[in-house]
Amino acid sequence: MIVQIELCLKHRLKVKGSATLRFQPGVNVLIGPNGSGKSTVLRALHSCRECRIENPDGTPMLYFNPETMNPHHPDYYPSDVREMLLKTRGIFSSHGEILRAALFSLPVREGSVFLVDEPETGQDIEGVERIREGFDKIVASGGQIIAATHHPLIMRDANLIELVPGYAEDLHHAFCPPTPTKG
Questions:
Q1: What is the average pLDDT across 8-27?
Q2: Which of the ends of the chain has fewer CB neighbours closer than 10 A, N or C?
């Protein structure tokens, strides 16, 4: 399980907010406006050797990115048979179907970490609900999710990590306008 990341200078300059981000067991959601560094944090967690990542168990991370999950993307090379099957399925499926298949079929062991970049991309409300169910299944099996999103269903009951302070409150006001009082 990932406990925290201390961003290196290169990533720190691209991410708004704190240079150190802390994560909890369960679903963690990076939130902030476009350009605030949500995807950058996920890429840093996945592959930066200079960022200091506290991962006491040394658990490997699986990274799901809407760009590289596209089977036609030139930088997408499956690393094992499971990924090859998902890639083959992806030729005939949408991004959401690929992600849902991955979330419901990947074996999860205690402490598994899944990095997911904007899982709501190209999804209708039912697709987002199924993805969130997949997240809950992973967490119930002892896994951890760290996702970047703008979707309130993904944020539900999650540990919110604001890259721009006050962003969660802004979202709440945008999606939950105050009810008029009777006078």
A1: 95
A2: C
